[in-house]
Amino acid sequence: MNISDALDQYRDICGDVLKRYTAKLNKSFKTVFIETLLLYMVIPRKINFTRLGRYGTHCEQCFRQNFTKKFDWLSYNLLMADRIFDKLDRKAIAIDPSYISKSGKRTPWIGYFWSGCAGQVKRGLEIMGIGLIDIDKHDCMMLRAVQSADTVTLANRGATLNDWYLKVIEQYKEQLLPVSKYIVADAYFSKFSFTQGLHDLGFHLVSRLRDDSNLLYLYQGEKTGKKGRPKTFDGKIDVSNPDHSRMEKLDIYEEEGELYTLIAHSKALKRNIRLVIWITPKGAHKLYFSTDTEMSGKDVIQFYRTRFQVEFCFRDSKQFTGLCHSQARDINRLDFAFNASMTAVNAAKVMMKENGIPFSMDTLKNLMYNTYILKRFFELSGFKPNRKINAKLVKELIDIATYRAA
């Protein structure tokens, strides 16, 4: 990759995907949109409207106005994911709520939400992230972020937070189902109401159960021919001492313990599931499952392990592209800011993959910032430097504080 052309490459990636975007957009919005994604990768530290206006070629008010406009982020990011994900690879939809630090009394839907990093409930905002994970490439691209309603709003609507999550998935069902019928989520979502809601929408859930879940063997014997309901279950599964004769052993991750799979009945979920029991070398056990009983045990464990890639997307967005920085007090502006932050990380990932460079947001952020500042300096100075004569000098200036990206 020619590091002096990094800005143009990043802008071209965003522009090429936008050309494939079918919805009608006016020219001015397209220009501001591409510049916004570029600035999210360029601006160091806090990213808000003031700094967008300071670093960009448009004024602060222009960014404020454009952030109120509706945009189909999910369709746009699906098109971007097509650039690095193969259609034949195994894919799943990963969902995960993430806490966003925020203060103020007039911020819409501010309330108390669980923060995984802090390990406690904190005041702020929450977004539900929807990502596309590629199991074979072990990677994730964020598709959409939707802000969660606070408890007061949910109470007024007679709904729970799980109902809200299901409503979000239902809203994008037509776009997500053609991609994958599997939703991968952490153990919080392994509830009957949620799994049943996903089933009604046409999805299957891949997740983890509590270690003390009540699970039953399915009866595999012959029918007795007696009157009454046929025998369905054949005893409770003791996961600390399972009957290996009723299970199939998996030959993956053998260095990390033993894996067994079978079709079992979960009393909590009120359905038969494809169960995978992971027994660690220390004797502890973890329970993973899929509501699709025809899914292989190998797929269940690999799908769930790849789910964690969505956490890296949140991490990069928070550390490098200002996911928590927006100071807006409008739902539409907050929504645009959250999704622009994650889409900027997607574009960076595409850029690094297509150039065959190991993904590093820190390296690319420094490279983009140095290149942008140098380019802006020449533009505002009114001089047009001779690139042949100054090529070496320009390269040295761009490389300052940047690890070699090529």
From TrEMBL:
Occurrences of domain Transposase IS701-like DDE (ranges): 70-238
The keyword Nuclease is annotated on this UniProt entry: yes
Keywords carried by this UniProt record: Endonuclease, Hydrolase, Nuclease
Pfam families in the cross-refs: DDE_5
Mitochondrion as UniProt keyword: no
Origin: domain of life: Bacteria
GO molecular function, one term: endonuclease activity
Name of protein: DDE superfamily endonuclease
Organism name: Bacteroides luti
